[in-house]
Amino acid sequence: MAEPTLTLNGRTVAFQPGQTILEVAQGAGVYIPTLCYMKDTLPTGSCRVCVVEVEGARTLLPACATQAAANQVIQTESPRVAAARRMVLELALASGNHNCLICEANGECELQALAYRYQVPTPAFAAPPDTPYYFEDNNSMIVRDFSKCIMCGRCVRGCTERQVNDAIAIGYRGSHNKIVAKADKTYIESDCVFCGECVQSCPVGALLDKNAIGQGRSWERTTVRTVCPYCGVGCQLEVHVKDDRILKVTGADAVPNEGRLCVKGRFGWHFVHHPDRLTTPLLRKNGELTPVSWDEALDYVAARLTEIKAKYGPGQIGGWCSARITNEENYLMQKFMRAVLGTNHVDHCARL
Amino acid sequence: MTNSIAELEDANCILVIGSNTNENHPVIAARIKRAVRFRGADLIVVDPRRQDLVKFAKLYLRQIPGTDIALLNAMMHVIIRDNLYDAAYVAERTENFEALKETVAAYTPERAERITGIPARDIEAAARMYAQAKVASIVYCMGITQHTVGTDNVKALANLAMLCGNVGVWGGGVNPLRGQNNVQGACDMGGLPNVFSGYQPVTDEAARKKMEAAWGVSNLPAWVGKTMTEMLPAIHAGEMKALYIIGENPALSDADAHHAIQAMQKLELLVVQDIFLTETGKLAHVVLPAASFAEKDGTFSNTERRVARVRRCIPPLPGTKPDWQIICELSTRMGYPMRYASPEEIFEEIRTVTPSYAGITYQRLEAGGIQWPCPTEEHPGTVFLHKDRFARGLGMFFPVEHKDPAEMPDEEFPLYLTTGRLLYHYHTGTMSRRAPGLVEKAPECRVELAAADAARLGIAEGDTVRVRSRRGEITARATISPKAVAGTVFLPFHFAEAAANKLTNAALDPVCKIPEFKVCAVQVTKA
Amino acid sequence: MITCSCAATPPAQLTPAQWEKIDAIIAKYKDVPGNLMPVLQEVQEAIGYLPPEVQDRLAEGLNIPGSHIFGVMSFYSMYTWRPKGKYVIRFCESPPCHVLGAENLLQMAQEELGIGLNQTTPDGLFTLETSACLGVCEVAPAMQINEVVHGHLTRERFRQIIADYRAGMAPDYTTLTCTTYEISRYKQPPTDLVLLKNVGKIDPENIDDYLAAGGWQALKKAVTTMTPEQVVEEVKTSGIRGRGGAGFPAGLKWSFTRPLTVTPKYIICNADEGEPGTIKDRYIMEGDPQKILEGMAIAGYAVGASQGYIYVRGEYYLSKHRLAKAIEQARARGFLGKNLFGTDFSFDIEVRSGFGCYICGEETALIESIEGKRGYPRMKPPFPGVSGLWGKPTIVNNVETLASVPAIIEKGGAWYKSLGTPDTTGTKIYQIIGHVATPQIVEVPAGITLRELIDTYGGGMRPGSTFKFCQTGGASAGIVTAAALDTPLDFGSLAQVGGALGSGTMLVADQSVCVVDFVRAVAKFFAHESCGQCTPCREGTPLILRTVNRICRGQGTLEDLALLERLGAAMIDASFCPLGQTAPAPFLSAYKNFRQEFEDHITKKVCAAGVCRLG
Predict the structure, then answer these.
(1) Is B419 at the interface with chain A, CB within 8 A?
(2) Using a CB-CB distance cutoff of 8 angstroms, which residues of chain A are in contact with residue C81?
(3) Chain A contact for C527, CB < 8 A?
(4) How close A86 comes to chain C (CA, Å)?
(5) Structural domain includes residue B234
């Protein structure tokens, strides 16, 4: 059977049954803006930025939540769509205090990007800048600034659908809507486990990684894909670096975590820069561990290992590989123990 | 893991046993919870603690610590009795079924109830739920392995999975969750006393010859070495004189840690290579400062056998060196020059001697991690193991019997102690206790008690209590938690100042030499 | 800095007995699907409020995340997490009450009680609040004190009522015959009634009365002599269009669900009568509850459902009481339960209560509410008939629709169709309210004209009143001028003149009403009742209110009018559900019909009706 087709901005496009209009458009290289849409969660069709005109439909329809159907005739940028989309953006900009100058999300903000693309200035009917908004800064990890919140609900779906931690929900009603943790408590007083999925889900600057605030704009940072140093899941990280300092860590959209992280992966990297880090070899002299040069330390170890091997035989020497070091390093360590020292007393902490 | 993490979302039933997944592997827990919430999967949680995942479970079975085999055998008893097993699969793909049948015949649910404390009807329900699911996955962790019967526990799980045809299928499997980021890789690379990389036995002459040729040496030792848990007593006994430890902190992490410290103090040479001066480093003769994960290139292998690139984010802290460079320099000094320009060069050598890694290259890893076995560069990697055929041909049932833990509560030490991790910390805390956010959420060790035990002992929330076992004692503040079940207390092992492993029992599983961290007997009193 | 103004409450000091009550409620509902709303309602009833400590207990006991519990609670106006007075006074602010002076009365009440809005008298007796709509428009302006409604308020009457309550003479709502007026006051046509036949004639709390009036015979006929398909066909033949407002043919709806093999299926009776001006369903629920049950059971038989829910708006305490009693009696007599009339057909019904939320009248929001969630409308398709309550096929029909069903089965679809107009068959209950002499409800064959409704049943305009405009069909519909007085009141005809039949309510306004001020009252209603799910409605409804407010204060500009038009067009086009799509309609139609009046407010600072205080 032939694939069903629809007409997208005058082009005939084939699609798979079950695909949404957004998916079909993305597949066809047609841009439809989104805000509340988020991968791996159920589309809510709530922000209305992605509305498109479908011939025969009474109203515009959200592309993210509307199934493609055979012979649909769809316009993604018609004057009617443009007018509605522009108004939706104006309304989002009018709710809150979207001051890009000092906003941490500047450059990464999806609302900012859409305002730019559609050339929508902050409208005259916006709430005055001195309007009070909820602001929470009572923990070391996440800052919540509701003056930037556009109630897209992505943080809630990140929490309840992607991580299934169920710590936050949408509370209140209508224009009073607000993200609530428990009985509208602060995160630290709630069921929040600080996985930070909400921060990563936020398309604007309402939820922030506290570590990175004011530390560097997105274009000043480089990101490096690597693997989390904690448990064995092997989550893929994006490490955000500026001037050889880690500013923050986010989850990479790759297997196995597909963007998710836990509190340790996201907020547990400070040890890398900790002043307690060892920066010189230590050698015990007169009972005290004393700083020495690398050469002195390595010469000492090589000499002692050689002596002990000679005196007691290889069977009196053991070496522990580690679950914290790389495959290459583990391989070298066991090779060193076996090939150089001649011992199979090689193990690591697999049992702990 | 026999299967992949993502497959969990496609399982119709998930049996989580001996894994506090929500705290120890939160990102895998997310998959399990998604399977329950969005796919209608049935979740069975078996754990001595009423952990968070129980909220998502259809069935929660609370076993007396150390009684998993009785439960699993009884489930198989029900499954065989009611003909719920996958007869075709058993016939075609397994052997030794009759022996299993005979062994589990003695484990009626009623008998298992007496051993495990789990109501017989719940055992029956769990058996049916697991057996009748289209595809069922088993997820386990240290709650299964850290027992004197750890190996048998794992065999019992494998028996159950094979009995219901759940091995070698998408969404099924027997899935151990590895606790440390590259523990899989350390095993794969031969960081074990009995095998070279790729699990090639040191006792196999062909393997030795191959390594000798590759490494340009002769006479590689043919004997099986000691495990960590065997080395410490050997040191104690004066049978070992030198120990070179990388990235490990046995002074805190070993069962009966006091004993471990004494052992290390007897060494003629203790070399510790780490990023911090750990409790173990303080005992060393030489401490070598290593670079952290963020400061070097290489690969890690995760719990689902996925090899992925570690990339240098920042240069090594001045004064430190990546571990591979340290080993190279040391080896070179000892007359065996190791001159690798980069970790990639080392990896190229690994590929040539390790068949399961042979098809993996750094270049391929740029596109994402690859799961071994991956024998050739054209091979896509292996999502789940034992498809169509077990590695050994037929799947072998190994029937096992229940045995009591090495130490049981008595009059003097009336409570079970079980240990584990908190969400906010990792291992001995060298990394996690240096993150302000993690410390804020979990600043100190808390002894987790059930309300009933606390009331009986006159202990209130936040009281300082003394926990004592035959091996030592610690003091810490108490927390009364709905997760705790009366009769069992829980301690996290992250805190040097209240080191849980001063209390734990170093009794080992006879096969894999894992200590019984999960069960010992203690006494708790108000301090 | 933390500026949280919301849930900061002193820790609750509950007695052990109160905790026991809470635990008992948890135990009672532990395994009931969608238990959150009934549990919250019963606990609030028992304790008076739902402080965070109680929410924690419910979260643990029901295994529902605390954030979800608060998210649900804070969505519905009638839940409270702060302690309140013994009597909670709720002043209706709906447009029908507004045009009759509610705003001034609210000011008066604050003076009389010596407290501000949302405050409690020092003696702990009274808390003063507003309600977006109480559903008692025939006695506007009105208030509700706990369960009891007091209408036709004046300062004197308010004083007397407060004095009575202070003297311990608070009425027990379960002893009242009805919430407002007995139907015998109202003029009805000489034709046979279908819906109101028994109302006011039988004892609604005695099933024998209903049986004596021929009750439950239609169900018997259906299950013993007809196939489900025949029942569906009969309803199709009748041509009855849904009476909730949308006017979708009920038989057609049923015919989509009937053939589905998915089980279970559900019947939901939408009794969330929240559309301002709409009061009809209350009369049926209070006066003839068995008829609704019978209609639901027939619907259940027709589509293959065995469970029904009646979702009643929270303010209708007496309706809930009567329905619960009726269900109990019907079960006792074997009209509900297993194997009805000795057949395989089983059917039972549960009453669920809304708790102060207009949007839950939208069928998918209602379903979410029954499931224990915030009343957020769902995307359609899928329609509830295919995937509704708990994802199962669900028929949602209005009270009036279901109450028509027994007669259709009894007398036949053709008979029903012979009543009314081809567009809108059968009889229809109209509500004529506002500045008419005798606001009331009336059941007539559909299609009488607005003029006839006003003159014959509304008793004509009030003395001294002249007709200015009529808001048709409810708060979300357009307003029509005198030009529409002779339009038949059916779905099709009204739509053609810019109105809507909606729920059949006609709010008549006279010359004393400023159309701008009226639009302000409607805008306030929608700003209060927007669920907030989608951007256009969440941000648009308060923007309409702010802008119209400005115009009413003499601070408007002509750009404001242009903005409202542009905003309105976007809301119609881009809002998620009918609420947002229709919320601009009152402004747009008012502006179209009374453009000069709007512009006069702006350019001349003149309010012709003398209502707005400009400048």
Answers:
(1) no
(2) 183
(3) yes
(4) 9
(5) no
Whether B428 contacts A323, CB under 8 Å: no
Architecture of domain C87-171: 3-Layer(aba) Sandwich (3.40)
Helix axes of A79-94 and A110-117: crossing angle, nearest 10 degrees: 140
Tokens of B492: 């996290």
From chain A, pick out residues whose CB is under 8 angstroms from the CB of C4: 134, 136, 184, 186
C-beta atoms of C535 and A168 within 8 A: no
Total count of domains within chain B: 3
Asked whether residue A315 falls in the same domain as residue A254, the answer is no
**Position of tokens 């708006």?**
C313
Domain extent at residue B92: 5-177
Q: Would you state the pLDDT for residue A1? A: 61
Query: To the nearest whole number, what is the mean pLDDT of chain C?
Result: 95
Indicate yes or no: CB of C532 within 8 angstroms of CB of A167: no
Using DSSP's 3-state secondary structure scheme, residue B111 falls into helix
Q: In what order do the strands lie in the sheet with B370-371?
A: B298-301, B306-310, B370-371
Q: Which of B277, B333, B434 sits opposite A299 (nearest CB)?
A: B333
Tokens representing B103 are 């062994």
CA-based nearest distance A212→chain C, Å? 18
Please answer yes or no on whether A167 and C7 come within 8 Å at the CB atom.
Answer: no
CATH number, domain at A11?
3.10.20.740
- Tokens 């949602």 — which residue? C396
Which of B182, B246, B311 is opposite residue A320, by nearest beta carbon? B246
Q: Are A199 and A248 in contact (CB under 8 A)?
A: no
| Token pair of A68 as six digits | 């493609």
Residue whose pair of structure tokens reads 């839940």 in the numeric block: C79
Q: Are residues B13 and B158 in the same domain?
A: yes
C506 neighbors C431 (Cβ within 8 angstroms): yes
**C575 close contact with A: CB closer than 8 A:** yes
Q: How far is CA C605 from CA B345, C553, C557, C597, in A?
A: 84, 9, 11, 10
CB B143 within 8 A of CB B18: yes
φ, ψ for residue A181, nearest 5 deg: -110, 130
A141 touches chain B (CB under 8 A): yes
The answer, for C60 touching chain A at a CB cutoff of 8 Å, is no
C52 Cβ under 8 Å from any chain A Cβ: yes
- The fold adopted by the segment(s) C207-418 is Rossmann fold (3.40.50)
Residues B141, B145, B151, B154, Cα dihedral to 10° = -20
Supply C410's token pair: 């009894």
Q: Does A46 touch chain C (CB under 8 A)?
A: yes
pLDDT in tens, C38-64: 999 999 999 999 999 999 999 999 999
Q: Are A151 and C567 inside 8 Å of each other by CB?
A: no
Task: Count other C-beta atoms under 10 Å from residue A12's C-beta.
Answer: 9
Q: Is the pLDDT of residue C1 over 60?
A: no
Query: Residue B100 to residues B81, B158, C439: CA-CA distances in angstroms?
Result: 12, 12, 83
Tokens found for residue C264: 């279970």
Which among C1, C69, C543 is the nearest to A135, CB-wise?
C1
Mean pLDDT, consecutive 10-residue stretches, chain B (527 aa), reads 94 97 96 97 97 97 96 98 97 96 97 97 98 97 92 96 96 93 94 96 97 96 94 94 93 79 94 95 97 97 96 97 98 96 97 97 96 95 90 93 94 95 91 94 96 96 96 95 94 90 88 88 94
Q: Neighbours of C (≥3 Cβ pairs closer than 8 A)?
A: A
B314 to A280: CB separation less than 8 angstroms, yes or no: no
**Are A304 and B285 a contacting pair at CB < 8 A?**
yes
Question: Nearest by CB to C4, which of A87, A150, A184?
Answer: A184
pLDDT over 70, % of chain C: 98
**Helix or strand or coil: residue C198?**
coil
Tell me, yes or no, if C63 comes closer than 8 A to chain A by beta carbon. Answer: no
pLDDT at C5 over 50: no
